[in-house]
């Protein structure tokens, strides 16, 4: 199966954060398309957003606005549009913009 995949930048199961340079390298894989980030490190998130086209989602409510300010909303919207295009314009109803 060639389904797209995302990375949890801070795994609640292990409490291990994924470093920004690791996320940047993972972004080169064609199936890695998104990050859910709960690290609370806006500088690291900004670095990943600047160097990748990953869709970026906040996994930490207090960081949602700062992540939106550095571009996560644009990335997420572009990923949803791309997914709809890949599906022949038939995106899941919750993903339609």
Structure, described:
The chain is α/β, with parallel strands linked by helices and 97 residues long. It has one domain. The protein contains four helices and five strands, in the order βββαβαβαα. The chain has helices spanning 20-26, 42-51, 64-69, 72-86, and strands at 5-8, 10-11, 16-17, 32-37, 55-58. It has a three-stranded parallel beta sheet. Strand 4 (32-37), helix 2 (42-51) and strand 5 form a beta-alpha-beta unit. Helix 1 (20-26) packs parallel to helix 2 (42-51). The longest helix is centred in the C-terminal third of the chain and has 15 residues, at 72-86.
Describe the structure in brief.
With 97 residues, the protein is of the alpha/beta class. It has helices at residues 20-26, 42-51, 64-69, 72-86; strands at residues 5-8, 10-11, 16-17, 32-37, 55-58.
Q: Rounded to an integer, what's the Rg over CA atoms?
A: 13 Å
> Quick one: overall form?
globular
Classify the beta-strand content into a percent band. Answer: 15-25%
Task: State the end-to-end CA separation.
Answer: 26 Å
What is the makeup of the main sheet? Answer: 3 strands, parallel
Summing up helix and strand content along with how strands pair, one would put the structural category as alpha/beta
Helix content: 25-40%
Number of strands: 5
């Amino acid at each position: 199966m060639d389904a797209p995949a995302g990375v949890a930048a801070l795994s609640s199961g292990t409490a291990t954060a994924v470093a920004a340079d690791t996320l940047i390298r993972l972004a080169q894989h064609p199936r890695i398309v998104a990050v859910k980030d709960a690290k609370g490190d806006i500088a690291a998130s900004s670095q990943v957003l600047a160097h990748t086209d990953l869709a970026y989602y906040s996994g930490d409510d207090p960081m949602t606005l700062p992540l939106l300010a550095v571009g996560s909303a644009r990335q997420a919207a572009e990923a949803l549009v791309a997914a709809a295009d890949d599906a022949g314009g038939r995106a899941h109803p919750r993903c339609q913009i």
